[in-house]
Amino acid sequence: MGSEGPSAVTIHMTGFKKFHGVPENPTETIVSNIREYMNKRGLPKGLTLGSCSILETAGHGAVASLYKTLQLAIEENDSELTNSRRVIWVHFGVNSGATKFAIEHQAFNEATFRCPDEMGWKPQKVPIIPSDGAISRTRETSLPIQEIAKALSKKGYHVMTSDDAGRFVCNYVYYHSLRFAEENGIKSLFVHVPLFFTVDEETQMQFAASLLEALAAFD
Question: How many Cβ atoms sit within 10 Å of the Cβ of residue 6?
Fold first, then answer.
């Protein structure tokens, strides 16, 4: 009758370490502290916070560790012996010029790095996954980002939806994650956050918690 509410969901999260021009990445702080923060705040019914991992801010050189991280979600879900539990990957990245939170709709099959990543790689117009075809190819999240953004806006956050996650490491990770999600029957989302200088740490922690609660509420 629809009274059961949303099904159980496990949300796994990633942030990034420092990179060129951003010596202190806010997403490393957010993801490192989110478990303690949510424990104090109280997890919504049905929500399990899974792995909280910090990724190297690198593309090709960090792919193996990225997939090892993504695979954790599948293995943990299989071990629970339930097919009713939803699994969502939420990736946080920083946009140093942003004043709002941005929920990313899609990723492009293109790596064009404006500066070398933390492993020294600086690709230009390279397909992220060659077998996917042209660099114009996109993969989109299956999550209802407009509704999620609206729910967060109602809570007072300055949040927008975006169709362009750039062509740097954020887009690179999101593209791989969306492909992995599609192949494994799970969901993926990327969110860009401002620097703490622009939006303070406490507000960003509250936003991350509210995002998790919003995701748990959507079936």
Answer: 15
No. of H helices and E strands in the chain? 5, 8
Residue 154 burial (C-beta neighbours within 10 Å; 0-12, 13-18, 19+): exposed
DSSP-assigned beta bridge partners for residue 126: 111
Task: Report residue 32 as tokens.
Answer: 């490192």
User: HEC string of 14-54?
Assistant: EEECCECCECCCHHHHHHHHHHHHHHHHCCCCCEEEEEEEE
Orientation angle between helical segments 145-154 and 201-217, nearest 10 degrees: 130
Q: What does the pLDDT profile of the chain (219 residues) look like in tens digits?
A: 344 566 799 999 999 998 877 778 999 999 999 999 999 999 998 999 999 999 999 998 888 888 988 998 787 666 654 556 799 999 999 999 999 999 999 999 999 999 999 999 999 999 999 999 999 999 999 999 999 999 999 999 999 999 999 999 999 999 999 999 999 999 999 999 999 999 999 999 999 999 999 999 986
Give the number of other CB atoms < 10 A from CB of residue 99: 11
**148: nearest Cα among 183, 189, 108:** 189
In the block, tokens 């012996």 appear at 81
DSSP 213: H
Q: Compute the distance between CA of residue 85 and CA of residue 93 in angstroms, rounded to an integer.
A: 26
d(CA 195, CA 174): 20
Kindly give the pairing relationship between strand 187-193 and strand 101-104.
antiparallel
